[in-house]
Amino acid sequence: MIRLKKPNVVVLGAGYGGLMTVTRLQKMIGVNEASITLVNKHDYHYESTWLHEAAAGTLHHERVRYAIADVIDQSKVKFIQDTVEKINLEEKQVLLQNHEPLTYDYLVVALGFESETFGIKGLKEYAFSIANVNAARQIREHIEYQFATYSTEEEKRDERLTIVVGGAGFTGIEFLGELVNRVPELCREYDVDPNKVRIICVEAAPTVLPGFDPELVEYAVNVLEKKGVEFKIGTAIKECTPEGIIVSKDDQVEEIKAGTVVWAAGVRGSRVIDESGFEAMRGRVKVDPFLRAPGHEDVFVVGDCALIINEETNRPYPPTAQIAMQQGEVCAKNLAVLIRGQGELQPFKPDLKGTVCSLGHDDAIGVVFGKKIWGAKASVMKKVIDNRALYLIGGPTLVAKKGKFKLL
Amino acid sequence: MIRLKKPNVVVLGAGYGGLMTVTRLQKMIGVNEASITLVNKHDYHYESTWLHEAAAGTLHHERVRYAIADVIDQSKVKFIQDTVEKINLEEKQVLLQNHEPLTYDYLVVALGFESETFGIKGLKEYAFSIANVNAARQIREHIEYQFATYSTEEEKRDERLTIVVGGAGFTGIEFLGELVNRVPELCREYDVDPNKVRIICVEAAPTVLPGFDPELVEYAVNVLEKKGVEFKIGTAIKECTPEGIIVSKDDQVEEIKAGTVVWAAGVRGSRVIDESGFEAMRGRVKVDPFLRAPGHEDVFVVGDCALIINEETNRPYPPTAQIAMQQGEVCAKNLAVLIRGQGELQPFKPDLKGTVCSLGHDDAIGVVFGKKIWGAKASVMKKVIDNRALYLIGGPTLVAKKGKFKLL
Predict the structure, then answer these.
(1) What is the pLDDT of residues B267-321, one digit of tens each?
(2) Which of B138, B149, B191 sits opposite A148 (nearest CB)?
(3) CA of A238, closest CA in chain B: separation in Å?
(4) Per the database record, which ranges form the FAD/NAD(P)-binding domain (chains A, B) (predicted)?
(5) Domains (range + CATH), chain B
(6) Residue spans of alpha helices (H) in A230-374
(7) Contact (CB<8Å) A134/B141
(8) pLDDT digit string (tens) for B113-170?
(9) Which helix H or strand E contains A399, and what residues bound it?
(10) Which end of chain A is more exposed for a tag (fewer CB within 10 A), N or C?
(11) What amino acid positions of B are annotated as catalytic residues?
(12) Cα–Cα distance between B184 and B194 in angstroms, integer?
């Protein structure tokens, strides 16, 4: 068969889902079968599941990212560094901030998550969120600056040393796990009395880590409390101000003064989804079994912008790296089928291996292959999972370069 | 001779002058001859001539300080960590912030320098000064936070990346020398385009490094300009605001927006001097030939709080570490004479070996033993001088611990 024109495959986003799609697709098809274009805001991929470490300052952000050029085959994939403004579904075009519009035959939307503040007043202005590499290192620097300033000021404002974490979900707890290890280092670095530092976690739900096994949750809470975290559960953040937050519990309103507020309680899909006219909820498209947007058979959506209902629980699968990468694999296969016009589309079926929530570099809790684990064992498992994400996208070379392990 | 009571020697300040006095005196006299008390705000000494490196972030502040306990003989010297509030000359007492007043028979005032803003509006509130370890690391963190924030904000405010250094004297130039080396590192660390960064030096005098050899000054200006510093000479800072500074030159007023303003143009002696009723100018006491305050034969003043006129130039000697340490030596000898009631007081005569001004870690200019030097040679000489200060106070052990050298 002779094609008059190679089809244009455009992939938006180089997170777990987008990069998995591209790295798998570049192996499956030949140079002459399709033109692949990858668009990403930065020239690097970052491990968004490691960002809490960069934000706490326990892992340098250079360790959390790698150059996209290191994992794509540049003979097959053209990379454009730019920000996506909108998708024009009618014209099959992607509008970019600084480049001419891109025309696609097949589109993969993998634009990841954004922070969701649920309209809580002041959160957007005064709270940080662990949204990306830039945001993570700003949090690290902000906290360090608070400690440095505390040492300098004549009238000590103890609330400078209070760090509020909004949300006791996965991200909140993992961030707390790093913070409790980081704070003693900061106290030594800036000659600050550790007793002056407060770490407060505020969660509106009646429990920490909703949905997690209660025994493991208790383990996590004990570990973090022992290291100084104060939990305020069943407590809602009403407002964030330049001075801290205002919370309410059982109609009791309280102000908590804090030099740093990190919002880790809500994520949503990309605003590009909303602005492009997809049928969506909070930037997430409920995709068909083959990961396509309803009514747009040439548009795939993978990762945190894709919404899939878990039929066992009748609730959406959580937006995880694990699922995003599995979707990328299926998406690449389905693209190859469409490009070649042969074979059958494969439906997506998540294969959930488990979940591990870290509590600092040396502790964790989790359920893996249906088994509960905690402590050092869970911590090792967490690092295995982190390294696996590197391996799946960049092979052993990338694991050697960015992996989490010690050489003995 | 049997004394009924050992005299109390109280030394205020553990900078170059105070610590030199104590470490020399503890070698000269026996445990039974006098009680020596050293008072200092912190439990560490810092190399104030190295602070510009900590402020720029080119040398960690841990390298710039050492524990006072490491250099004093605790069988002879009692150390009190506290802030001096006032000296009561009539009662021969020193009032401290958190301890009972100290009574002295002999007092050494070595309270060092403070920043002098000459009443320029807003400087105290909005500019940083490289005054001590706490201030230096706050400057470092402030600059890093500006870079981190620039990477995060959607509408980039380029002026965040502008650093204004007020003053092209010794401290200003040495700080600039470190900054020009640090900025490229910061740009890499925070993915910032180096062309967006501005480093501006504003000096009211008609020349950089007033009093320095003009040929050496030209060398320094060329080096710094080549690395990106913009000099505004003959330009006075009129006001400092939260947004930057307002300067004037030849009656032309200009606003320079800047995320960071570091004031490095004025020092004065300690405010404790003013508040204790000494005859003094800007916190500096014009001492007698034996380093005593006029009218108070039991009170010595050494270091930056002592004012001595250079008879050759009819101007005061500048407040340097070299002079402070030489004064400490003479002061210790004179104290020993007074304690023992034998021997003769020795007049102080500065022995100026030279001055080297660094331009980063690998370049410098200076005059040493009357000879002009620059480049690598001057830079090596600067490190020799830095190590000598450690040696004089703490001997070879301290040089090995904190010295500036590379082991090959």
Answers:
(1) 999 999 999 999 999 999 999 999 999 999 999 999 999 999 998 888 999 899 9
(2) B138
(3) 25
(4) 8-328
(5) 8-113+269-352 (3.50.50.100), 123-265 (3.50.50.60), 353-408 (no CATH)
(6) 271-275, 321-340
(7) no
(8) 999 999 999 999 999 999 999 999 999 999 999 999 999 998 999 999 999 999 999 9
(9) helix A375-402
(10) C
(11) 174
(12) 7
